[in-house]
Amino acid sequence: MGFGIADLSIVPVRREQSERSEMVSQVLFGELFEVLEVAEKWVYIRLVHDGYEGWIDRKMFLPVSDEYAANYRAEEPVLATEVFNIVTKEGDYGNKLIVSGSAFPFFDVDTKKMQIGEDTYTLVSKIKEVGIDSLRDLIIGYALMYYNTPYLWGGRTPYGIDCSGLSQIVYKMAGIFLPRDASQQVANGQDFSFVEEALPGDLAFFGDDSGAITHVGIIWEQNRIIHASGRVRVDKIDHQGIFNEDLKRYTHNLKVIKRIIEEG
């Protein structure tokens, strides 16, 4: 039924066709999606980068041509790696505040212009110069950018983020694409059973007594983890799980550690 792109900073993705429905994820500026179903006030979409599906408001996206979508998919967009970025739309007034992890399709580094459908936008703020000596250090640096971000179910931004949104967006900015939910992310990478084997940037997954995966975090050091629980925080981790130093108790039971980054 066609394609669309987010021309707003953040678009909520709902489980049902209602503003009162659970927000299961968010579409960020410049992210492309396929339109699967059109209702009176809502459209059902599938995101191109991770295949995630849900309902968004019909007023909150820009339809794009099949040709644009094909070219978009053939040329990987530049990603916003500053926490906040300002863009302006040609022929419009005012600025748009764009968050980290957003996409800049067909970005020209010299003019700092990009194409959102048929509209031309210009990045007003600077692009962060990122070193790539260590992919693991890069991932940790991105994760710490979100430190103290409040927890928000379905969130993927510095205004609010959930545990799997954090791991997905951090890896995305580092050029590695993960599924949206922790239960999907755990199917990727190489298994490790011991925290002592973990390296910075590895993902640790946690679950309940039934074995279901309910939480994910990013290993920083052997005994530290960056994760979203109440807020993005740094806690201790050992073979049992995450020990919350504020609460003085274990809050998540460790199930498995996954190594997504391939060693060169």
Task: Compose a concise summary of this entry.
The protein has four helices and 22 strands. By secondary structure, it is mainly beta. β21 and β22 form a beta hairpin.
Characterization of this structure:
The chain is mainly beta and about 260 residues long. It is built from four helices and 22 strands. The protein has helices at about 65-75, 135-145, 165-175, 180-185; strands at about 5, 10-15, 25-30, 30-40, 40-45, 55, 60-65, 80, 85-90, 95-100, 105, 115, 120-125, 155, 160, 190, 205, 215-220, 225-230, 230-235, 240-245, 250-260. It has a six-stranded antiparallel beta barrel with strand order 17-18-19-20-21-22. Strand 2 (about 10-15) and strand 3 form a beta hairpin. Helix 2 (about 135-145) crosses helix 3.
Keywords, separated by commas or semicolons:
264 residues; mainly beta; 41% strand
Task: Say how many strands there are.
Answer: 22
Q: Percent of residues in beta strands? A: 35-45%
Q: Would you tell me the structural class of the helices and strands?
A: mainly beta
Largest sheet: 6 strands, antiparallel, barrel
Distance between the termini: 42 Å
Strand order of the largest sheet: 17-18-19-20-21-22
Q: What is the string of helix and strand elements?
A: EEEEEEEHEEEEEEHEEHHEEEEEEE
Shape descriptor: globular
Uncertain runs with pLDDT below 50, 5 residues or more? none
Multimerization state: single chain
Summarize model confidence as the mean pLDDT. Answer: 94
What share of residues is helical? Answer: 10-25%
Number of helices: 4
